[in-house]
Write a structure and sequence with these properties.
Layout: H1 2-5, E1 6-8, H2 38-48, H3 50-56, H4 78-90, H5 107-112, H6 114-122, H7 156-167, E2 193-198, E3 202-204, E4 212-219, E5 226-234, E6 241-249, H8 254-257, E7 264-265, E8 277-281, E9 288-289, E10 294-298, E11 303-310, E12 317-319, E13 322-328, E14 334-343, E15 368-375, E16 383-391, E17 396-405, E18 408-415, E19 426-427, E20 437-438, E21 443-450, H9 457-465, E22 485-492
Parallel strand pairs: 10-14
Antiparallel strand pairs: 1-14, 2-13, 3-12, 4-7, 4-11, 5-9, 5-10, 5-13, 6-8, 6-11, 14-22, 15-21, 16-19, 16-20, 16-22, 17-18, 17-21
Length: about 500
Amino acid sequence: MLNHRVRPLVALTLACVVAPACGDDGSSSSETASTTGSSATTGGSATTAGSEATSNSSTETGGSDTATTTAGGADVTWYQHVRPIVAEHCWACHSAEGALSFSLEEYDVAQQFGALMLEKIIGSDNPPYYMPPFLAREYESCTPDVPWRDDPRLSDEAIATIQAWVDAGKPEGDPADAAPVPDWQPEVLSGGSMATIESAGYSLGADVKDDQYRCFSLGTDLAAPVWLTGLQVNPGDAAVVHHVVLFSDPSGASEAKAQGEGSYPCFGGAGVPESSVLYAWAPGGNPLELPADAGIPLQPGERVVMQVHYHPTGAATTDKTSLTVRWTDTKPAREALMAIIGGVSVGQTNSNNWDDPPFMIPAGAENHVETWRETLDVPPADIRIWSVFPHMHLVGQSMEITLEHQGDEACLAPMPHWDFDWQRTYVYDAPFSELPRVYDGDVLKVRCTYNNSLSNPGLAKALAEEGIGAPIDMQVGEDTLDEMCVAIVGIMY
């Protein structure tokens, strides 16, 4: 029941994306069309063209002998046409300042990765499936009616420009006559009452090779309730912080688990009772700005668990990631809450909400589907959905989240290619009156598809790390070799 399972976004800390998207800077360029709104539909059409585009650019150094031209008749070059697009959409991660992976600031590097860059922009069959890593890609059976906020995807025009550049052999152009690039600056929270809370920190030795998942317990000394209006993740060492997921901890149990080292190992969840996902952030993501006149209630004594996914670089480092919180002491016009819809724990294995209980993904199954349907029990109020956080583990392949009202089904979030490494919270870009509305008796459906075979590279790696040579039957749960099928739905009323 929704009214029993909604809990405050006990988010002394949330942040925009686990996994937000590289290049999510909100700026615009004369070289590209706006990426908000119109590009939401571009995602589907661009993916459709993927096989043709990839075949036209199958090598990193080759291309057609004749330079392809722009609509105005000019040859497409790096400095005059492509660099501004890459700066706007990619430099948040692929730059010296972004500190992730390789930099795409210089021509010599960009031309080496040109065809691969085009392939990932259009859509690839191999992870990472998309760049920027924005997984909510519309397709025929599931297209939301409302666009996404901070949608970093490229427009059709921008994709065509990069395609022309690759086809022409990736010409450099004249650096002395380079087109201006967007003055990208990271977005930061401002205004209102704010505080920054540091984690206890975590050290990675030079000999650490495997990814690490550490949970930090964060608390406040609140004497009275407050309402959160914005949150921002501040990575300590951006080179190793792959993404951050925030969980509620209503009981405060994480404080004892983190004693000693200041954190504890965790994977699928926070490992504390009654916990739920609050928000997710990844490099390139903007801070969370709650919708106007809305706030997340935070009670005295509540804690937040911050899960940091570390990706070692081979260099010794100590990370101290922090969270900036903005709040108000005055109750806003609307409260924002989070509802858990789907399976997250072993106790839900035999739930009647599954289409075909019990939840079990057989070993070796490559296209196994589990579907959770929940009939919502909500009070007679104007309740709207403002965000969706889809979540599975390593065996997940795709997800579709829909809302059924009086026999009509609306798409909330399509995920044709799930990628555990690039999770994020998806926030709708629309006024309150245009957000999806929830009525008593509506049915929210979460349909998850899994690949529990060795053809799934993420699973093969996880099995090898556990010393297991073959797939095993998987149940719902929080461990590495368990699975989930859940949508964390943000609501306002």
